[in-house]
Amino acid sequence: MRRGASLALAVALLAGCATPAHNPLFAGADPAVLVEHDTVRLLPTGRGDTLRGWVRERGRWRAGPPLIALADIRWAPDGAPRHFLWAPDMLATNGRYYLYYSIGPQNPTPSRIGVATAVSPDGPFVDSGRPLLTGGAGFEAIDPAVFADPHDGRTYLLAGGSAGARLRMFELASDRVSIARELPVTQPPDFTEGAYLHERDGTYYLSYSHGRYDRGDYSVHYETAPSVAGPWTYRGRLLASDSRYKGPGHHSFFRDPADGRWKIAYHRWEHVSGDGPYRGERQVAIETIRYLRDGRIAPIRMTP
């Protein structure tokens, strides 16, 4: 989740161009992942007015067409202060695609999460016509992450963080554009934003970012549980700044169809030093992760 000038990216200029599949992949932030068959899509924050996906083909990444623009969302405020569109996630189900996104800032108007649908992952997406979730009372409606549980058949939405630093969890209705109910969730230690949920071999992993996005303390922490309902056990910090790369976070996990290995997509700052605040553009990267025998994830090392 990021605001202002830090949202500026070169994606619009790179549309139709391809980049090699080694780190960093391209300028961007907050990458979500959608895997279908042999295709991997990354969905990063864009310039703030448009969302666009990236697709890996034959070992290279190319920018796809625009998915949705802020101007196409009728309920999005169009006056001062300037509003931004960021931190998307996508779900494929029922023969359709559902795109979730944040619109903010929180003040003076509350942040909101919206959802749009399309018949193709390349869009164009049509907004549902109303916010799915609105912030307020110490809660920022940002950073949506959707999780379809393979065991109970339900779809869950995680949201929240930043200045409010409060996580909330919901079960989505069968139409995926409305909320069925809110679920209780214990606030994770050191939670700031960017929560993500995935499952492997019956273990559930709730991971999230801690710290400030433009500083060296930005990092990924995680918990594990036997089900979405918990109980959750804090497992510590998973990904953190090193001597070369700073502020890694706002990530997603996926199993890569190219080699069958589990990986993490995230953003980081390159060519910066000190503790921040950093300036410029963040870069999207992918690392292979390793699960230990007890289900924990080995600390992740960032690679060039």
Automatic annotation (TrEMBL):
The keyword Phosphoprotein does not apply. It holds the Pfam family Glyco_hydro_43. Keywords: Carbohydrate metabolism, Glycosidase, Hydrolase, Polysaccharide degradation, Signal, Xylan degradation. The keyword DNA damage does not apply. Residues 1-23 form the signal peptide. Belongs to the glycosyl hydrolase 43 family. This is Family 43 glycosylhydrolase.
